[in-house]
Amino acid sequence: MASLTVADEKSASIPNAATDIEGAASPAAEYKDKDIAITIVGEQGHAIDPAVEARVVRKIDLFLVPAMALGYGLVYYDKAILGSAVLFGMTSDLSLTTLDYSTHPPSQDTSRLSWATSMFYFGMLAGLYPMTFALQKFNMGRIIGSLVCLWALICMLTAAVTSWRGLFAQRFFLGFVESIIPTAYMCIISSFYTQKEQALRQSWWFSSTGLFTIIGGAINYGFGQITGGSLKRWQYIYLLAGSLTFIFGLFCFAIPSSPVSAWFLTPEERVVATERLRYGQTGIRCVTFKWAQIREALLDIKILLVFLLMASAYTVNGAVSGFGPLIVSTFGYSTLDSIVFQFPLGGICFIFILLTGYLCSRVPNIRIILLVLCCLPVLAGCALIWRSSWHHHAASPVAGYSIIGFFGPVVSLIITVGMANVAGQTKKCFMAATIFVAYCVGNIVGPQLIKSETKSRHYPELWLGLIICYCITIVSAGALYFVLARENRRRATLELNDVDRDKLAFQDLTDKENIYFKYML
């Protein structure tokens, strides 16, 4: 098998690395329907030096992973700070809560706040598919950089919003431009790393949801100490988030579209970075949009199951990111204490996303098993919050709230399973967008489960709804495991050879078209 053989004479094994990379980005007519990898490595496998491959992976890691972690951390912080902002006066300043006189005594109606949380995800829904397919067609760095700078501007303009209607509009457009980030990251990881490596790398950038829950909470706690100034405390938070995002946006212009055009690698290293992905059959990049792959994706049971997994698993985030500090304050804690109690949840999220990613990179076919196991603490946390006593400074519901942080590794594993089990550039883009469409659905549904009039009964619709959703997650995971395992067993009975494997690797075939593709469980 040529592509994974240890090379003693590397220079004789690897093709000429002086190929015009710009030409690869705009392939000749005979290659336009194929993967651009063919332009520098051809259709035959080539041996590569493991030492050189290790050096290439380190360089890719150092360039991509820290920036991706920072970028997604800013995405999470940007949308989650609404939960802290409402504690700093945004609800009264923008009339996000009203008195409901239909109850006796009158109660607070938080429906506007719920919709403010959900509007972000309506915007993301509108942007996901067009943004993702634009990434396939055009230069990735220029698109991401431009939209991140626009996102920064919209974020800073939140400080100028004076009504709940203005906040609704701001949240919608913020979600629209931010939709570029998660799908771009999933496609980047799929294009630069092998199937075995993807789980750990996906976990690295997604773990920033937990890390920035802690960092963001600490920053917001600091802003909570402000007692003077011409602006409200919540306005300062948005100005800082937007400023940091703009700096990140300038860096994004340097992101390459694929290993073929990775400017931070030498020409020889680009060949190694490309060739080492041949065996996995996932492909690197094809700029031709293919309707046939869309039709296949729409009928693929795997994508439907991944959609169900993500939509059901992420309902918890819709409630926690927008209402988490508000829910904790219900237990009798102060505004600042409620922010501090985000730290344990963020810590669990951060640590276990990284741990599950590491385990997946070391133990084969453990992804879906870990996904199901991580659902169990979330179920326990919801039940503990719901059924425990909510007396002043209650400890049990806070403990339950903290272990809900296991939703982080659940979602990280769904992303990993989804992106590692599709091939064909258009189909990969469709999968990436579909995962985050489901993410949006979960985030839209989550806040709507919170009914302010049921506060005295511990928001039963919320916790029961989340428990049902995580039961759906577990059943869907089991079904996906069965589908993937059955297809792997079928393909194991086929007569295959390494020559055809190498030839088909960069033809931009889907996972169903390419019998050499192996599904990761």
Automatic annotation (TrEMBL):
<feature type="transmembrane region" description="Helical">
    <location>
        <begin position="339"/>
        <end position="361"/>
    </location>
</feature>
<feature type="transmembrane region" description="Helical">
    <location>
        <begin position="143"/>
        <end position="166"/>
    </location>
</feature>
<feature type="transmembrane region" description="Helical">
    <location>
        <begin position="60"/>
        <end position="77"/>
    </location>
</feature>
<dbReference type="Pfam" id="PF07690">
    <property type="entry name" value="MFS_1"/>
</dbReference>
<keyword id="KW-0472">Membrane</keyword>
<dbReference type="GO" id="GO:0022857">
    <property type="term" value="F:transmembrane transporter activity"/>
</dbReference>
<keyword id="KW-0813">Transport</keyword>
<feature type="transmembrane region" description="Helical">
    <location>
        <begin position="172"/>
        <end position="192"/>
    </location>
</feature>
<keyword id="KW-0812">Transmembrane</keyword>
<feature type="transmembrane region" description="Helical">
    <location>
        <begin position="429"/>
        <end position="450"/>
    </location>
</feature>
<dbReference type="InterPro" id="IPR011701">
    <property type="entry name" value="MFS"/>
</dbReference>
<feature type="transmembrane region" description="Helical">
    <location>
        <begin position="235"/>
        <end position="255"/>
    </location>
</feature>
<keyword id="KW-1133">Transmembrane helix</keyword>
<feature type="transmembrane region" description="Helical">
    <location>
        <begin position="113"/>
        <end position="131"/>
    </location>
</feature>
<protein>
    <recommendedName>
        <fullName>Major facilitator superfamily (MFS) profile domain-containing protein</fullName>
    </recommendedName>
</protein>
<dbReference type="InterPro" id="IPR020846">
    <property type="entry name" value="MFS_dom"/>
</dbReference>
<feature type="transmembrane region" description="Helical">
    <location>
        <begin position="368"/>
        <end position="386"/>
    </location>
</feature>
<feature type="transmembrane region" description="Helical">
    <location>
        <begin position="462"/>
        <end position="484"/>
    </location>
</feature>
<feature type="transmembrane region" description="Helical">
    <location>
        <begin position="303"/>
        <end position="327"/>
    </location>
</feature>
<feature type="transmembrane region" description="Helical">
    <location>
        <begin position="398"/>
        <end position="417"/>
    </location>
</feature>
<feature type="domain" description="Major facilitator superfamily (MFS) profile">
    <location>
        <begin position="64"/>
        <end position="488"/>
    </location>
</feature>
<dbReference type="GO" id="GO:0016020">
    <property type="term" value="C:membrane"/>
</dbReference>
<feature type="transmembrane region" description="Helical">
    <location>
        <begin position="204"/>
        <end position="223"/>
    </location>
</feature>
<dbReference type="InterPro" id="IPR036259">
    <property type="entry name" value="MFS_trans_sf"/>
</dbReference>
